[in-house]
Design goal:
It is built from ten helices and eight strands. It is α/β, with parallel strands linked by helices and 302 residues long.
């Protein structure tokens, strides 16, 4: 499947989380280049301003910074309120931000940080913006996952890793949760008769700041991850190439809700975007509904 980004996105509004670097920066760059008004959802104001200045060189639509810390549910609610106040429509919500394989830490709300940032924050943001999305014709929500979701398992008996914690296992759980959320959201939109689409996408392997941030958070030691970053990462596709599946999911015509877009090459590591392989765990509707209910409770809505 070839890229099919519309030539003109003037008049459309897109919110991209994690837009200060990596996949989010490249996604924001392309949407703004096509004329969309892009809200840069970022935790660090200085990095967000630097990104805005960088993107301004090619942007044909407005660029606005939205202060957003996905690991702070009160902050997520405040950011969503600002969007509702400042925007009369929301065409695209790109749930892109994430952290990867860090030592166990807690969010300000007391949740394991990878689960809180990668899943719960995006769950809360999407839920808060859903009325605006549904009011916008042909809107889309794209939730960015990872190929490691295939190894993920939702530890319903230990979601926060209090009894057993492994950084990569926690990351895989959060990425599987992303896809389960995207599919369950689509089912609920369908039941409401909404034409908003919910899709998932993953970049395969790409050079972003996630790898270096993960190593730094672990103390910057050696090991396989550090070796891969130093010697193999230069061979990986760029962040711009890695962003292609999520751009395809956001803009290509003819897609159906509940699809996963991924690189079409070997093991979905690189290549032109196309249909990806959904993990068996994500296709379990009972588990998806259970995760949704638990997420609502953790966010204070249950």
């Amino acid at each position: 499947m070839a890229d099919a980004t519309p030539a003109d996105l003037h008049g459309r509004i897109a919110l991209v989380t994690g837009a200060s670097g990596g996949l989010g920066l490249e996604t924001a760059r392309e949407l703004a280049r096509r004329g969309a008004r892009v809200l840069l959802g970022c935790r660090d104001r200085d990095r967000a301003e630097s990104a805005r200045q960088q993107l301004a060189a090619t942007a044909r639509g407005p660029l606005e910074i939205l202060s957003l810390d996905l690991a702070d549910l009160a902050g997520v609610a405040a950011a969503a309120q600002r969007v509702r106040q400042q925007c009369d429509r929301l065409d695209l919500l790109i749930n892109n931000a994430g952290i990867m394989a860090i030592p166990r830490r807690l969010s300000v709300d007391g949740f394991e940080l990878q689960f809180a940032t990668n899943h719960l924050g995006h769950f809360a943001l999407t839920r808060a913006l859903l009325p605006l999305l549904i009011r916008t014709p042909a809107s889309r929500v794209v939730t960015v996952t990872s190929g490691i979701q295939q190894l993920g398992r939702i530890a319903f008996d230990d979601l926060q890793g209090e009894r057993r914690y492994n950084p990569w296992r926690a990351y895989a759980q959060s990425k599987l949760a992303n896809t389960m959320f995207a599919l369950e959201l689509q089912e609920r939109l369908r039941q409401q008769g909404a034409d908003t689409l919910s899709l998932a996408a993953h970049p395969g392997i790409a050079r972003t700041n996630l790898q270096a941030a993960s190593i730094a958070a672990s103390g910057g030691g050696g090991g396989g991850a550090a070796f891969a970053l130093r010697w193999l990462a230069p061979l990986w596709p760029s962040a711009a190439q890695g962003a292609r599946p999520q751009l395809q999911a956001a803009t290509a015509p003819g897609l159906q809700g509940g699809e996963l877009l991924a690189p079409g090459g070997l093991a979905e590591l690189w290549g032109d975007p196309g249909p990806g392989r959904l993990p068996a765990a994500a296709r379990n509707s009972s588990d998806r509904a259970r995760l949704w209910q638990i997420s609502e409770t953790l966010c204070g809505w249950g």
